[in-house]
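Okay, can you check this protein?
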Amino acid sequence: MEAVLPTAGQEHAHEKFPDWVGAELPPKYMELTEQIRALTAESAWIEKMGALLWETGVPLAQAVRDAFSAMGFATKLVGPSANYDLAVELDRGRRLLVQVVGSPAAIDRTAPKITRILQTLQTEATDDDRVVLVANAHYTTPFRERRNEAVTPDALKLIVALGGNFLASPTLFGIWKYSLQDLANAKRMVHDLHALAGGVYQ
């Protein structure tokens, strides 16, 4: 009688062997398994930071929070009753109060988030705080193909007049990416953002 060879589907009928099989494998197997698990988690985390280049709304705000947190700053999203989206703790009571917005075009003076800069300054910011608008403008355009400014001149003039700062989310992505090789200097850039008294951080 001829032996019946398993089909391709039958070969992989069980994608994962029973736990007791793993216990019988050499110690090297567990070592490799842990390495793969750690690398998979790290890869997923790095992939999430890409949201700074293409997302809007809550996913973008979460990526902004994660970028600052990854550089060692205590950062938290605030409730919907606040006029800003998240707070970044620096030192000596200094904070960045961050508004987050995504737009398929440049941020213009009609953007509601600009009005919220004034509201934040009037009702929630202290003398030690800096209000920052983080924007992912032209988010439907691949990053390397973006040729236009992220904020229109009249909108920037208004933001500066209010004492706010503008930070493009791809610039924040670049700072975070740089922090992977030089954390100290990346953190200094964040402090420079706070020191900027109205303008675009580039």
Q: What stands out?
A: The CA atoms of residues 85 and 154 lie 23 Å apart. The longest strand covers residues 95-103.
